[in-house]
Amino acid sequence: MYRTHTCGELNITHVDAKVKLSGWVQKSRDLGGMTFVDLRDRYGITQLVFNMETNAELCRSARKLGREYVISTEGVVAVRSNKNSKIATGEIEILVESFSILNSSEVPPFTIEKETDGGDELRMKYRYLDLRRVEVRKNLELRHRMAIEIRNYLSNENFLEVETPVLIKSTPEGARDFVVPSRMNAGQFYALPQSPQTFKQLLMVAGFDRYFQIVKCFRDEDLRADRQPEFTQIDCEMSFVDRDDVLDAFEGLANHLFKSIKGVEIKEKYPKMAYTEALRRFGNDKPDTRFGMELVDLKEIATGKGFNVFDSAAYVSGICVEGCAEYSRKQLDELTDFVKKPQMGAKGLVYVKYNEAGSFKSSVDKFYSFEELQKWADAMGARPGDLLLVLAGDTEITRKALSELRLEMGRRLKLMEQKTFKPLWVVDFPLLEWDEETARYHAMHHPFTSPYEEDLELFKSDPGKVRAIAYDLVINGVEIGGGSIRIHNEGLQQQMFDNLGFTREEAAKQFGFLMGAFRYGAPPHGGIAFGFDRWVALFAELDSIRDTIAFPKNNAGRDVMIDTPSTISQDQLDELHLTLKKPESKK
RNA sequence: GGUCUGGUAGUUCAGUUGGUUAGAAUGCCGGCCUGUCACGCCGGAGGUCGCGAGUUCGAGUCUCGUCCAGACCGCCA
Hints:
This protein has about 575 residues and is an alpha+beta fold. It is built from 17 helices and 22 strands.
């Protein structure tokens, strides 16, 4: 037997008990006459004591224990004379009577402590060591608890978890697929699912009524801090529902998680904000509503006064930053540089300081009188002491830049408290999006999304205006999930494919199975999918989803620990009927 | 595909205008130490300054290329 207890559970009530513990040597402190060893496992840290007076030989051998040695030890629980209130077992220690080294360890390349000295790259390469750290482990524990709560909640709501295949069919719509060559079918490929979308719809046709799955999905696109090539979705679908049925059901799930995991009760219904309204008020479709500082359109009042930058702009808007009229030249230059970064793309930044005395100091004093600037200030609800920041230019670019500027000011003024949660539904997304590259419309959400019936006639006149019965759950500026009411009618689905520029043959080849199913009594249905990794990151207060994943990929999609992607042998290639374009020299 | 930032001891970093023998902290090794828990004190080892070219009397420092890492834009239905 290796242990009677874990390293996290012994306390004052166990005094005098004879116990066995096993774990890793976190650290040893050799004081000469006695040696302390911190023994660590998943559950905590327990102090072992060795004393030269009691057992000199044992004490001397304990001095040789290196960091991360795995040992098993036997001894008696004793009250500490000097207690440590920082750890759960801090009131007791083990008077060791014997121990054995189960495995030695090389000196680890970084310290395995709460605050490690290791950088990201090293930690990823030795991820199995990094995972020993409490800071990383607690994220995975949180992830586990959330998964349990989700399963319990949805199961209680009659949702059935059903597994769908991972080897499926490639489709050109949407993200790039990861493909898997088929050995038994020369020249043919499976694709890994970007989501179980069509399968969950087929489950609705099959009458499962309420489905969910916590499921891996795959997209072969470039990575970001919040994007991994393989990621986990909470995928859900319901039958006989309209939009608000779905929103209510999953507001329930979200509220359950807030309460059971974060101890937060959100009493009010989540606001529903139209996509166009979100863009107008916040400049993006995932507004962070923890603070105001909304975008105010100044096109009407600020143009026609001879300031060509504004007069020639399609879009002129600003934000009012409370209490920042005192900003220095240097600070304003920083903000200007911020919006002029190539990724941001704004040409410049106009500022107006609304001084405490009621006067204005702006970068456009030449063009605007006091009265005119007063109009701006009034339009923006500014008060003396505030700073107005105004951008102008192309609508899309400028709106995005202003939205980023708003978030930057929110960060600077510390308006984005991580303990505060502001969820909302963004609804009424456009059904279609014009794609310059392919010069055609494509589905903004996916081609199975139902349009509003009253918008159907716009298909002919102005397809970009057709609204989808689609919705996103946004919490604190993070898109946590999204879904839609689906098309369940073959004719409409066919029309949708027509509008997306599919030929009948293409549509039949790629999605014939779905449209075929629609002929056999498909119920009205809709659903949603949540980014599980992102949700965990939000609750763990992490900026990156990487530390919510046990073994994540790096920026370039590599797993640096197992060193993959990697080449395969010629035999494997032959078996898969594959010929590489040119010999790969890289490993 | 693009923009930006970084790469110096095991690790995290500093390194001035281009100038003698490249530093600190921590970790590691050795010694001392009986109540530590970031133990303390003394001593020691440890460097292809990512790699390759170039400029220069002289390059960690400047230039170009390249590789790696990270953030972002494009992309992500």
